[in-house]
Specification:
alpha/beta
Length: 203
């Protein structure tokens, strides 16, 4: 995957983050978007996912659905797996080669089960502001590097990330972001600052 930055939705669609997603779309293939909504029922999620998939496709932004293989196949979308449920090795044979598969990883046991994923979201690197009830201690830069070395796929950092914190990490393959983008007054500038960490030309 060309991009280094994955924007993750903070919940069900609302005008605030949809407006900011629109501001991010000019990044094109330098951006990916994961639609994570654990509150809506399956029908509502699919209807929203279909609209967001079209929006992202038209902007050449890689679009991921959360957890649902059936919806990824129906929409031709990429798929992100949470740490619970099916393992990547169980899902990969059912997903076309041109559709990416990512997985959440929080510890060494989950890292050992990431075979088959194209990349892993390793978290929480720093304390996430988007999950107030997440009581897991942050991994920190050293913990992130330790899990990254155990993985059979590239490690992307997730959790409390912002442009000033990225340099503290040992070159993650990419960064997944929630609050730093949706709470930013200008999410495009924030995203561009993060992409510069990899020497990307965000224009």
């Amino acid at each position: 995957m060309k991009c280094r930055l994955l924007a993750i939705s903070p919940g069900p669609p609302d005008k605030s983050w949809l407006s900011k997603l629109t501001q991010l779309l000019p990044l094109g293939d330098k951006l990916a978007f994961l639609f994570r909504d654990t509150e809506s029922n399956a029908h509502s999620y699919f209807q929203h996912a279909r609209q967001l998939a079209t929006l992202c496709h038209n902007a050449q932004v890689a679009f991921f659905v959360h957890r649902r293989l059936d919806m990824a196949l129906a929409l031709g979308a990429h798929l992100h797996l949470p740490s619970y449920g099916f393992r990547p090795s169980q899902v990969r044979p059912h997903l076309p080669p041109n559709q990416y598969l990512s997985v959440s990883v929080h510890n060494s046991e989950e890292a050992s089960q990431a075979q088959g994923a194209d990349f892993a979201l390793v978290s929480p690197v720093f304390s996430p502001t988007s999950k107030a009830l997440d009581l897991r201690p942050p991994l920190g830069p050293e913990g992130f590097l330790r899990l990254a070395r155990l993985l059979p796929c590239p490690a992307w950092a997730l959790g409390g990330l912002c442009p000033s914190r990225l340099p503290r990490l040992s070159k993650p393959a990419g960064a997944a972001v929630v609050s730093a983008l949706w709470q930013a007054e200008n999410p495009l500038l924030t995203a561009q600052a993060m992409l510069e960490y990899w020497g990307e030309n965000p224009s």
